[in-house]
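FtsQ-type POTRA domain-containing protein, pasting as requested.
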Amino acid sequence: MSKMAVRKKSKSPQRFSFKPVAVDWPKIKLVGAITGILAIVGIIGQMIKASYHLWPIEKVIIQGDFTYMQQSNLVALVNELPEKGMLFVDLNYLQAQAQQIDWIKRVEVQKIWPETLVFHVEEHMPVARFNQRVLTQHGEIINIAKGDFRFEHFPQVAIASEVDKQNYYPMIWREFKTYKKQFELIELELLGVTIDQASNWHMQFVEGINLNLGRKDRKARVTRLVNVYSAIVDKEKIKSIDLRYHNGLAVEWFENQSKENIKG
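Structure tokens follow.
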């Protein structure tokens, strides 16, 4: 039996078709433009950042008549600036920050090229010490460190913690100045005041006299003392005066510790 030869059919070659792709040239141009802009912005940013250190600040000059302000606080303020170069230092910002420093009443900042910052400073003037604070001429209240003896020669106002309210300081100081002028009429120099927890005023004088003015009718009581003081003999022997009387006062003497009542 003869075998039949089987012929395999060859596959026909595969044909491919190509479809044209539409190119969105406007979009490509936009993306390219944006990429270029971002690159330029990045370069400019790096240039600006680098320029922060151009013309570095080499010198700080502080001008003005000041006693209590710490110059190191202004130098530290300059050192903390993120911009270390003269070109980008914001004088308005620097001036506003300097104004917050204790004892600075007014300040102006000036650039002197190529490397210098100048601070023109006007300082607050202290008028009295209130516990661990100082009252200035324009009513500012500044905290001071314990043991700071620079203000010992100013009038001293010691207030018990129970009645220590800072918003009362200007009022107390005005009253203090009024009494001081009245006492000068009778040649007494008011040195300081202690206000106890019941708001009683205890006054100390350079002459060594202590005065208990009490809490009420203080102005009337001071006037009463001014009117009768000339009638008191041996004034140099007076230890204390108590004005907490409706009509009069009591005097305690150094000599025998006795009290003398004087009617006003």
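Note for the archive: The chain has two domains: 59-123, 126-262.
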